[in-house]
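Example record for the data management plan.
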Amino acid sequence: MIRYAVIRSYVIFLAVLVTFIALALTPGKSASASQKQDDMANMPTEVIDGAKNPELISDSDAYHMFFLTHSVLAGAGQKELNEQQNLIRQTRVSGSENAFVAMTLNDFRVQYEELVADYNAKATERQTTTGLGYDPTEFVKSRDALVLATRNKLRDGLGTVSLANLEGRVQAFKSNMKISR
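Corresponding structural encoding:
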């Protein structure tokens, strides 16, 4: 009985010690109540279901998601490249223009991944140094500019019929999307 009491006391002591150390090492929150409210005010509050209201999804959001889902990461294997070719063929782009579309979308993906990495580094640094979140406004502006540049590159490089088929596919893609605002 005494041995049980000693072990129990030891376990309780260790639990209290670990809790104390964890609390001592946890950085304090420096964000004010008003800053926390501002952060919450910037959180998305509305979900737009493209199946119900595709017209409420912006072309920029639709192209962004289309480009991501139809591109592959650098160093992709043959399986991923074959899957990408199948997706591009579904857009009914002329066979001779498939390689151009794949190259353009993959170039988008590389640049997009760089934008995400840069944003994540800045957000992590701000969170670490101030305890506050990082405003995504600049990231969204840069992402939208990249989407527009990619659309323009496709517009300049595709024939009229292929471009119309691609644009029609992106518009239809909206019905499979859900986004938050």
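Summary line stored alongside the record: The first strand starts at residue 47 and ends at 49.
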